[in-house]
Write a structure and sequence with these properties.
Helix content of chain B: 25-40%
Subcellular location (chain A): Cell membrane
Structural class of chain A: alpha/beta
Keywords (chain A): Cell membrane, Membrane, Protein transport, Transmembrane, Transmembrane helix, Transport
Number of strands of chain B: 7
Distance between the termini of chain B: 70 Å
Order of helices and strands of chain B: HHEEEEEHEHE
Protein name (chain A): Biopolymer transport protein ExbD
Number of helices of chain B: 4
Structural class of chain B: alpha/beta
Shape of chain B: elongated
Oligomer: heterodimer
Largest interface: A-B, 50 and 56 residues
Strand content of chain A: 5-15%
Number of strands of chain A: 6
Membrane topology (chain A): Single-pass membrane protein; Single-pass type II membrane protein
CATH class of the domain at 50-150 in chain B: Alpha Beta
Number of helices of chain A: 5
CATH architecture of the domain at 50-150 in chain B: 2-Layer Sandwich
Strand order of the largest sheet of chain A: 4-3-2-5-6
GO molecular function (chain A): transmembrane transporter activity
Shape of chain A: elongated
Distance between the termini of chain A: 98 Å
CATH topology of the domain at 50-150 in chain B: Nucleotidyltransferase, domain 5
Largest sheet of chain B: 6 strands, mixed
Helix content of chain A: 25-40%
Radius of gyration of chain A: 27 Å
Chain lengths: 204, 154
């Protein structure tokens, strides 16, 4: 039986070519990883109406100076204490909202000197033109974290699931809207509406 | 018995490598599909700040604005923060036309959901960012995203 099968075409070098291409694409690949903090800007309002008067106790003032230091409610503060301070301010619930309801879900100290209701509580942020952008983002991040913490807590209490997972589910079905889920998300958002105002930095 | 032995012959047959290219091609296609070629090079320094409370960016409706110090090869432009859109340094008054131009390229259902991604170097002055934001307000592109990296939780 000396008869042999026809020799196969040598495919050994095919792997080399494929590897070459593979390595090229491996090196050039950057898996997209763009993420960030989503914020909405206030629309331009040129009406001449008087801005409503806001009580000082409902304002949480943050100033960032050109040396990147923070002045929170007229006291110097470290960035790592900002989140807690913002949570305490938002969650205080010392009074009633514009409809005259008191905040029955707040767990704050109910200090009459601090914010009345999360509906009324406003955080204002003012920075200098020379503040670095890195510090500005850190401050923004802490403030968003404070809101997220409170919303997360209420979502756990009322719906027994995390707020993040609710948002994720909404995102997944963005083209067939789930009215109930949207209503639930809106309910949580309305409990702690994000009222973050940014002042224009002074022109120098 | 002896018949079989004869057929097998002396040396071992080589392991077939014929399926190796298939495997490699499979990997290759994966990376080809996942690859995004960088379509515009940044002309400004662009070290993004880090944050924890981040959301995913929706690529299909996002326009990017870069800002920062001009990078090494554009040093002759000084060290003041500059704005870059698409492949050129621009002034503040060019932001609005650029936004409208981008919105015009979007499909109808995304036109009013446009997001502007701000990729700003962390050492830039925040003043330039508020100038950009003011322009965006005037262009009525109110959704912005500060593009950041993911900060590691301590």
């Amino acid at each position: 039986m000396a008869k042999r099968a026809a020799p196969e075409v040598n495919a050994g070098s095919m792997a080399d070519i494929a590897f070459l291409l593979l390595i090229f694409f491996l090196v050039t690949t950057t898996i997209e990883k763009d993420k960030g903090i989503l914020r909405s800007l206030p629309p331009i309002d040129d009406s001449q109406t008087e801005p409503p008067i806001i009580k000082q106790k409902n304002l949480f003032t943050i100033l960032v100076n050109r040396d990147d230091r923070l002045l929170v409610e007229e006291e110097e503060m470290d960035i790592k204490d900002l989140r807690q301070a913002a949570i305490e301010f938002l969650d205080n619930g010392g009074g009633v909202n514009p409809e005259g309801e008191s905040c029955d879900y707040c767990r704050g100290k109910k200090d009459p000197e601090s914010s009345d209701h999360p509906d009324k509580a406003i955080i204002t942020l003012k920075h200098d033109r020379e503040t670095t952008y890195g510090r500005y983002i850190e401050v923004q991040n802490e403030l968003v974290a404070a809101y997220n913490f409170l919303r997360e807590r209420e979502a756990q209490r009322i719906f027994n699931r995390s707020f993040a997972s609710m948002l994720e589910e909404k995102e997944k079905n963005q083209f067939n809207k789930d009215e109930k889920l949207n209503a639930n998300i809106q309910r949580i958002k309305d409990m702690y509406p994000m009222k973050l105002s940014e002042a224009e930095p002074d022109k120098s | 018995m002896s018949k079989f032995k004869k057929k097998k012959g002396g040396d071992l047959p080589a392991i077939s490598t014929a399926s190796l290219p298939d495997i490699v091609f499979m990997l290759l296609f994966f990376f080809m599909v996942a690859t995004v070629m960088r379509d515009n090079s940044t002309m400004v320094e662009n070290v993004l700040p880090n944050a924890t409370e981040i959301e995913k960016l929706k690529k299909d409706r996002t326009m990017f604005i870069y800002a920062g110090k001009p990078s090494e090869q554009y040093k002759n432009l000084g060290t003041e923060g500059r704005i870059q859109i698409n492949d050129a340094f621009v002034n503040l008054d060019a932001i609005q036309p650029a936004v409208f131009e981008y919105i015009a390229t979007l499909p109808e259902e995304l036109k009013d959901r446009v997001v502007v991604g701000l990729k700003v170097d962390e050492n830039t002055n925040a003043g330039i960012v508020s100038d950009v934001k003011q322009e965006l307000r005037e262009a009525n592109a109110l959704k912005i995203m500060y593009v950041t990296g993911q900060k590691k939780e301590e």
